[in-house]
Design goal:
By secondary structure, this protein is α/β, with parallel strands linked by helices. It contains seven helices and nine strands, in the order βαβααβαβββαβαβαβ. It is globular, with a radius of gyration of 17 Å.
Length: 254
């Protein structure tokens, strides 16, 4: 039977708060963290604005001040023994880690996504992104032999800050089982959802962008998923056929 997915166009925290308590087995997400705005202001990234170099209308940031309500909502919706993965940069890591711990999560360590090629910047140009690994209760990883560095090329000419499905497959494979429900409140392109349904998990996600809903629907369907409600409280799917996703000609999307 194909795995089901459920999508909603709504604020991330509001969506998490609307889900039944202890209803998700795993949460993987990539918030549009506040430090991106600083990099944009000094010209090291075109994220968060419409630029001459890009055809994308970038998303609004998720301010650091909202991390407490995010972690509280995440803790509430996750089952007793579950993992939480939060993508961020090193600067945001020092903000998010203590807040997550204060909300009840155990912080294990930062994982590294090695993009294999360098990105933008003036010096020591970044080729990696941090993934904060949190735990609620106690859950054993499925393969204790995997390293803490996940290698996968960055996605080019894709959805803004799109993550490789391969990175999602590692996290989903490590922290869930077939038939589990994986959620992502900042789903963007739906890469983590595609990884979930490809590995036999159900997926629920939200985003404030109608383009994200449309792109995710296509990606999840292509991965073998089918639309369907996962929770007693149904979240209306808001996908509407429309134009093709914007891309960055010759540039990076993550």
């Amino acid at each position: 039977m194909p795995c089901r997915f459920e999508l909603a166009q709504v604020d991330a925290v509001a969506w998490l708060q609307s889900l039944p308590p202890t209803s998700a087995d795993l949460l993987i997400t990539d918030p549009p963290y506040e430090s991106l705005e600083k990099h944009r202001a000094i010209g090291t990234t075109t994220r968060l604005k419409h630029s001459k170099a890009s055809s994308n209308d970038w998303f609004a940031i998720f301010p650091n001040a909202r991390f407490p309500e995010f972690f509280e909502a995440a803790y509430r919706v996750l089952k007793k023994n579950a993992h939480l993965y939060v993508f961020c940069d090193p600067e945001t890591m020092f903000v998010a880690k203590p807040i997550g711990e204060a909300c009840g999560f155990k912080f294990w360590k930062p994982l590294i996504w090695d993009k294999r090629t360098i990105g933008m910047g003036y010096h020591y140009r970044a080729r990696y992104e941090t993934i904060l690994f949190f735990e609620k209760g106690k859950r054993r990883l499925n393969d204790l032999g995997l390293p803490d560095i996940i290698e996968a090329p960055r996605v080019r000419n894709g959805y803004p800050t799109e993550k490789p499905v391969r990175v999602g497959e590692v996290l989903v494979g490590q922290s869930s089982a077939a038939g589990d429900t994986v959620i992502d409140p900042f789903m963007g392109s739906g890469a983590f959802g595609a990884a979930a349904v490809a590995l036999g998990r159900n997926f629920a996600g939200s985003d404030t962008s109608p383009e994200a809903i449309r792109v995710s629907h296509v990606k999840l369907t292509s991965a073998g998923g089918r639309p369907g409600g996962l929770f007693p409280r149904q979240t209306a799917e808001t996908w509407v056929p429309g134009r093709r996703p914007n891309t960055i000609p010759g540039g990076e999307a993550a």
